[in-house]
Amino acid sequence: MDEIIFVDKPAGMTSFGAVARVRRVLSQCEGKKIKVGHTGTLDPFATGLLILMAGKATKKAMEFTKLDKVYEATICLGKTSTTGDPEGEITETGAELPSLEQIRVVIPEFVGKIKQRPPIFSAIKIDGQRAYKLARKGKEVEMPEREVEIFSLDILSYDAPYLKIRTHVSSGTYIRTLAEDIGKRLGCGAYTTELRRTRISTYDISEVPLFSLPE
């Protein structure tokens, strides 16, 4: 059982939870424990494409970690979240919501190579520890800026306060941070309410064979 496995992760499930479910099914089928690993995580609230590796294929995992990705996201304007997503503490900013024309002026500023400061609640390691674990302990965490590239950023719809976008980004780009930065630029604040990964490099979720995750 040495293969690449494609999963459509549902909301509320961690990436490690998806790995555990796939490992359980494969191990039961093979009658022995099968090694399964992921090639990059998705936030628990997010849905979409996960690429997992089974058996000897896990040795190729690093080949998939730096691939570009495509996401569709729904952004709520006029509110902020301590985690950048629905799982954090939500606060209304009281700012006036922008018009679609104002959003169209700002969006192109985020296309190309940009600087991003990853969210504190992320899996990035700081001094050997996951940033989100340090944040949950109430410790101050200084997240270093990094350069990422936004290849494209399109507005799909705007029904205030909800802005839906599709974006093609380099590896290491945080859509939660992108949404927050757009909200700051618009002067109203923002956080990501829904996030779906539809493609990793040439692997499109509508075209690849998907592994059926058990409950």
Rough shape?
elongated
Major sheet description = 9 strands, mixed
Q: Low-confidence parts, pLDDT < 50 over ≥5 residues?
A: none
- N-to-C SSE string, H for helix and E for strand: EHEEHEEEHEEEHEEHEE
Strand segment count = 13
Q: Structural class of the helices, strands and pairings?
A: alpha+beta
| CATH superfamily descriptor of the largest domain | Pseudouridine synthase
Distance between the termini: 22 Å
Into which percent range does the helicity of residues fall?
Answer: 10-25%
Rounded to an integer, what's the Rg over CA atoms?
18 Å
Report the mean per-residue pLDDT as an integer. 89
What is the number of helical segments per DSSP (H or I, 4+ residues)?
A: 5
Regarding quaternary structure, how should these chains be classified?
A: single chain
CATH third-level topology of the largest domain:
Pseudouridine synthase
Strand content: 35-45%
CATH class of the largest domain: Alpha Beta
The total tally of domains equals: 2
Level-2 CATH architecture of the largest domain? 2-Layer Sandwich
How would you concisely characterize the structure shown here?
By secondary structure, this protein is of the alpha+beta class. The protein has 5 helices and 13 strands.
Q: Could you list some keywords that capture this structure?
A:
single chain; 215 residues; alpha+beta; Pseudouridine synthase; 9-stranded mixed β-sheet; two-stranded antiparallel ribbon; 21% helix; elongated
